[in-house]
Design goal:
By secondary structure, the protein is of the alpha+beta class. The protein has 6 helices and 8 strands; from the N terminus they run ααβββαβαββββαα.
């Protein structure tokens, strides 16, 4: 059953769907998957939280790498400009995330996003969107799979299995902690899968989520409580 049927929301406007799909097709042509050519000294994590149906709050946390010490925390809240449409969530979240990013005094070498990169039906998860907008290396670490098939990795930390979709490996299913559910690591833009997986594993210290996205999620909730 479609999302809008389950939650009594009106179905998406067909013209809007056509417009967003056309935009995704153009963006697909610009995606570059490659080994990063930077020296990774600063990594940012980002996440968004919705306040009711009309407001979105986005947070960025900047950390040193490989030490993972927090350098900056910023946030921005603004109006939600699009309804929820499955497969097009990035269009709903990206504008506010970009405004939050602008508030960082020190820009990161890499952005780790709480969500998908190319492990998306049209290769355009939120991590890829941000990478294309900013022309910055990005990667996604998601909690749930969107598309593709995989076998459960072994139960020990560091175990990996590939996520395959239409004959392509689009992500790695990574166990970041013994005996807990894995995460789904994918390149976004200007990043490759092997590097993204190694970085995600290095950033997974005590918790399931790697520190950049875990802290972004944490501070998004903190800012939401403080200001709303």
């Amino acid at each position: 059953m479609a999302y809008y049927q389950r939650y009594n929301s009106p179905p998406p406007d067909p013209e809007l769907l056509q417009e967003l799909t056309a935009m995704q097709k153009k963006m697909q042509e610009r995606i570059i998957i490659q080994k990063p050519d930077f020296e990774l000294k600063f990594i940012a994590g980002c996440d968004s939280s919705f306040i009711g149906e009309d407001t979105i709050l986005s947070a960025f946390v900047l950390l040193t790498y490989p030490e993972l010490e927090v350098v900056e925390k910023v946030w921005h809240a603004g109006p939600v400009e699009l309804p929820y449409i499955p497969g097009f969530l990035a269009f709903r979240e990206a504008p506010n995330l970009l405004l939050a990013y602008q508030k960082l005094q020190q820009k990161p070498d890499l952005i780790m996003v709480d969500g998908h990169g190319i492990s998306h039906p049209r290769r355009l998860g939120i991590a890829t969107h941000l990478g294309l907008h900013l022309e910055k290396p990005t990667m996604g670490v998601a909690k749930k799979v969107l598309v593709g098939k995989y076998k459960e990795p072994a139960t020990t930390k560091g175990s990996i299995s590939p996520l395959e979709y239409k004959g392509e490996i689009i992500a790695n299913v990574l166990r970041t902690k013994d005996n807990i559910k894995p995460v789904f690591v994918s390149p976004g833009h200007l990043m490759d899968l092997e590097s993204a997986t190694n970085i995600a594993l290095h950033c997974a210290t005590k918790y399931k989520l790697p520190e950049p996205t875990r802290l972004a999620d944490h501070y998004a909730a903190v800012f939401k409580r403080r200001h709303f």
